[in-house]
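Lecture 7 notes. Example A: sequence first, then its structure tokens.
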Amino acid sequence: MKKHSARVAPLSACNSPVLTLTKVEEEERPREHVAHSGPDVQPAAGAAGPESSSTRRKLHCCIRITAVQVRKALWGVAMVMCVCSSWAGSTQLAKVTFKHFDAPFTLTWFATTWNCLFFPLYYVGHLCKSPERQTARQRLRECCRFFGDDGLTPKVFFTKVAPFGLLWILTNYLYLQALRKINTTDVSALFCCNKAFVFLLSWIVLRDRFMGIRIVAAILAIAGIVMMTYADGFHSHSVIGITLVVTSASMSALYKVLFKMVLGSAKFGEAALFLTIVGGANFVFISIVPVVLYLTRVEYIESPGDIPWGYLCGVAALLFAFNILVNFGIAITYPTSISLGIVLSVPVNAMVDFYSCEINFNTVRLIAVSIICLGFLMLLLPEDWDQCIIRLSTKLRKRDEPAEGGAQAGTSTGLNWRGRTRTSMSTFSR
């Protein structure tokens, strides 16, 4: 049995394009393989055999890494489509559900209860894929170490799990409430601001690295919020809806940053157990709230037979699929693909709203949606994006330089030409 590895310290909340609950331990293995193969394949001077052998090894390693990257890129395309369809589909279906059953909190409670399926599905995958199969009790006990040496105690539950459960419910409830007030395009676009809020909170709370490009992205997100409010003329109905979705995005950012600060990063089994506990706690402790709302006629329906179970199960299933993709999709592809799927749901919702005649695409709204999406994409840039651009421009400049150096080297002596060539080759190899 493998020993339980230590949790990753929450040094940064914005290192990955999507701040997920999970981490992939095998993610750096190809890079480590390349770094390890360097000292072993350095040839001795003047030995032709070791040089050809090292060349073959390097070529084989490059081909292997390229195949892995192509596979992850193909999975990334599929991930973009799945994330976009599940997120946009759940948003549109929730909007339709409210026409038949206007009960946002009941829908939130029902969808959150589906989180109980995370750990059972993970354990089925563990039995199918893992070479070291464990019983459900053994796997559960090992995953519980994520909460500390004593496992999941009542104190740990009420201090480290229950607050995240409340933030989860608030995020989803406010998002669904916003759908009752404004159209799905505005809701999905404004919710993309949560990435900017994650950066601001991680910069303040987690002392994350300051980046000017991300500050600009946060400013664009705030400007988009103001312009979105102006697009409808500051009517009370739209202002309330925008306030609700911005608050929902803030709760989502707070959830992610606090998780990083309090619990760190979780492996797949630990994340599945955490989400299962959130769903179970929601069912045990929050079930009384929909009953109270029904008795007080806040979320009332004439008879249980009038409940549109098909719509409820559809929204819950799409949200469940979306959470699986967001939290566990990094096992097969790049986190950027997941982020692209989220932001691409905005034009998908816009197309649906346009053909259903539920939105007026004026100039202010188009500009607001565009700058919010632009800010979201700017936040996907890596921390060393400026250095990457400098290196790329340097390579392009060297490639465009005329071959004057080669002609000058040809007029010199043969010994000097060989010495310069050997020196330049050694410099390039570093």
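Example B, a different protein, same format:
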Amino acid sequence: MLWQGGGGGGGLRLFFPFVAGVLLLLRQALPGAGAVSGSPSELRVRVRLPDGQVTEESLQADSGADCVTLELRKGDGTLITLTADFKQEVKIFRALILGELERGQSQFQALCFVTRLHRNEIIPSESMAKLRQKNPRTVRQAEEVRALEHLSMDVAVNFSKGAQLSSHIYNICSEAKEAIYTREEDAKFWLEKEVDGSMFEVLPQSADLPDLQRCRLCADRWKPCICTYALSIEWYPCMLKYCKSRDATGKVSSYKCGIRSCQKGYSFDYYVPQKQLCLWDEET
């Protein structure tokens, strides 16, 4: 571990080991160090995609609003955004997918998936805002690959009322007004917090429509079906690391000294009124 101190005991910076010798910098929360409290900050890191390509990922933290946003572009041009709203305990995924113009699709298609944010899924916004990197050219790879999560998004969310769940829905999901989905179990959790239940609409399921197939098995592009969309957050700070120090009197204390990075994939199943809206989900 490498310490670097300024003259006269000024603000300490702590460099800590990272994946394959990569070093990241986490500024300690000392008076006058780091970004101004509450002001948004951004970190850009280079990450390797599963196909071997390298892309740039943006990590934005706003400790004042208590939210974190991660954004990356996949090799096929799809833009993936994840926003964690810690105040509202809401997680928002957005995918902007380039359309297949030759198959009658629009220029791009937008999807939004809204789920409950659980504790310890991602590091707090205050800690994210203090992350710095020593070498911006380093290509990063996650230390831990978390299990793929399958989510049945069986409820539609009304865009005009979505701000009750999170104010960020208005900006993030504006291109996906007719394609915002959540789970029934998450909707029940939010209803207990007294949000307006009229924002939720239960979508048709296979049990309701016996002929409802998965889109990959559906031959007719104009029939309704159950679509599957998969995405992956290739690199994100999922846990804080703590180190111990001993002062002159021998007293031991712990402090934040680093992060652990994770990769996690998600698979969303949801109803579409026609397969034309799910052309990526085809049998191969």
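Note on Example B: The radius of gyration is 22 Å. The helical segments are 125-128, 169-172, 184-191.
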